[in-house]
Amino acid sequence: TFQAHVRRSYRDHGLQAGSVGAGPDTRGVISTGEPAPPGPAAAPAVERLSGVLAARAGDYLANPVRQAGLTCATCATPAPGYERCLRCAGDLRRGPVADATAFLTYAIAGQPSGYLMRGYKADPPVTAHLQVVTLLLAVSLARHARCAAVLAGRPVTHWAVVPSLPARPGPHPLREVVARLAPRHEIPLAAAGRARYPRDLRPGHFSCAARLRPGAHVLLIDDTWTMGGHAQSAALALRAAGAGRISLLVAARWLKADFGDNPAILRRSAGRRFDPATCPWTGSGCPQAAPRERSA
């Protein structure tokens, strides 16, 4: 089963609850909104796994470019001279989509990064691909889940995975990967049984049976962003359930290497090894929380 493959991937890299800050260390940080690093026992594991990830996939993974006036503030696609690309600007006008987005790497069609994102959830999964995706998410959640809380000025209270659309039997492969790593409490989403245009932004594509308390901050996790409507439709379902803040973390931004202005953006990443320390929310350093005011 896919679950067995995931357990083997965890075991191969020494991943277990709390080993990379996914347990009490990181959950405590996120529940309070503190930007402190993982606890003393977690930090060495994060550095070790970051090194393993860089050694195994640093040559073909690439930190996405996040630069105002050059790339879309939402989806990181080239949008020279504009805050957002045409599609994301339109989605923003149509509904309360995610407040913040982050992309861990590019997935390039026809290149190793593209094969990676297809292979990890194949049936059966490509073991090497599943291991890299597991490492990528483990390291990124340990290092950067707290960045979402800092940027929002409020703690992450829940997490959710974007399901397949239309709905398929069994859990999404991504959920099996992140279930032991994501912070706080899961808020399950259900996909519609039929979807004529699954990549469009449609409020009926997903639903959430639970009700969230006012001020809830959901870390929404997806594996691949192509046009954005899939993940943003899930964000609309979370809004309907009461989410006050949605931070959308996507493993890979899918690009075609020869489309539009993509070649210029990809040239900026060429020759640079993937750096797990680069914040996917900012494209540079991790945000720092404002110091607390001293009580009189």
Biggest sheet architecture: 5 strands, parallel
Query: Which regions contain 5 or more consecutive residues with pLDDT less than 50?
Result: 17-41
Assembly type of the chains comes to: single chain
Mean pLDDT figure: 86
Q: Look at the helices and sheets and give the structural class.
A: alpha/beta
Shape: globular
Please bin the fraction of helical residues.
Answer: 25-40%
Plain-language structure description:
The structure is a single chain. The chain has 296 residues and is of the alpha/beta class. Helices cover 35% and strands 13% of the residues. It has nine helices and seven strands. The strands form two sheets. The chain has a five-stranded parallel beta sheet with strand order 1-7-6-2-3, sandwiched between helices. A two-stranded antiparallel sheet has the order 4-5. Helix 3 packs across helix 6 (127-152). The longest helix has 26 residues, at 127-152. The model is unreliable at 17-41 (pLDDT under 50).
Q: Which SSEs are present, and which pair or pack?
A:
Layout: H1 2-12, H2 24-32, H3 43-57, H4 86-94, E1 100-108, H5 112-119, H6 127-152, E2 158-161, H7 173-178, E3 185-186, E4 190-191, E5 206-207, E6 217-225, H8 229-240, E7 245-255, H9 262-269
Parallel strand pairs: 1-7, 2-3, 2-6, 6-7
Antiparallel strand pairs: 4-5
